[in-house]
Amino acid sequence: MVTETHPVAHGQHGDGHEHHNPVLHHHFDDIGQQRECTGLGMWLFLATEAMMFGGLFFTYTLYRSKFPMAFHEGSHHLNIVLGTANTFVLLFSSLTMAMAVWSAATRQRNKLIIFLVATWILGAAFIGIKAVEWTTDWNEGLVPALQWNFYQRPEPENVESLRRITEAGTTPDQVKMYFVVYFCMTGLHAIHMLIGLAVVAYYIFLAKRGQFTRYPNDQPVEIVGLYWHFVDIIWIFLFPLLYLIAGFHPFGGGH
Question: I need a surface site. Which of 104, 141, 167, 206 has the fewest CB within 10 A?
Fold first, then answer.
């Protein structure tokens, strides 16, 4: 009597490849290998992103050490209320993104959609608040190379600001350097936020089609979650450096 035998069970063949699995790419042996390679690739990408932002953090440190009074005065003109609000918005968005990753892992389609939508709304709110803040900066003449006339305007607070930096031996050009660093750092962060919003919007579309819950295919959501948390962490560093640490200046008073 001849008994037909199969090399392996669960849809695997002798070559070690999983078949009939629409989420497994052909160049991987199995899902475990695919997850490890994809996760490693994402962490390497985040390392390069950290190095890019690290250059800006180094620039900030260098010029703040050279022009401490100017950086104190520049920070004095930021809106700490809006900056604080944006910090809480991003912290909540990290929570909703973590819940989205959990929902994908447990294959709960409706919850995944809800948490991705909530994350997108919070991210859009961050950009909206930042746009309001940048508009105010523009109107006050605080945008170097494009709209820089703050110290030529006659408003009393501008005259008082000029008096403080003059008494401290600082020049308006040194204060301008603070805003160059400020807009470079927050601008690059905002670009990353916009990219994240675009990806999350696309994932909402895919989640509605069951892309992440019909099969064990939660890793794409996990990957975008890593990116989102990274961008949030960058802001956690930017907020104290730009709004708080430099804001406690020796001139007295607050924001």
Answer: 167
Could you tell me the residue ranges of all domains in the chain?
Answer: 51-245
Helix axes 156-167, 68-76, angle to 10 degrees: 160
Q: Give residue-wise pLDDT tens across range 100-143.
A: 999 999 999 999 999 999 999 999 999 999 999 999 999 988 99
**Span 207-230, average pLDDT:** 88
Q: What residues form DSSP beta bridges with 158? A: none
CATH number attached to the domain at 51-245: 1.20.120.80
Of the candidates 129, 111, 133, 110, the residue with the CA atom closest to the CA atom of residue 121 = 129
Q: How far apart, in whole angstroms, are the C-alpha atoms of residue 206 and residue 186?
A: 30
Higher pLDDT, 9 or 59: 59
DSSP letters along 107-136, please? T-HHHHHHHHHHHHHHHHHHHHHHHHHHHH
pTM (2 d.p.)? 0.81
**Contact by Cβ (8 Å): 144, 183:** yes
- Classify each residue of 184-223 as buried b or exposed e, where b means 16 or more C-beta atoms within 10 Å of its C-beta: ebbebbbebbeebbebbeebbeebeeebbbeeebbbbbbb
E strands, the chain, where?
A: 142-143, 147-148
Rounded Cα gap, residues 190 and 109, in angstroms: 29
C-beta separation of 58 from 50 below 8 A: no
The Cα–Cα gap between 129 and 135 comes to 10
Indicate if the pLDDT at residue 185 is higher than 90. Answer: yes
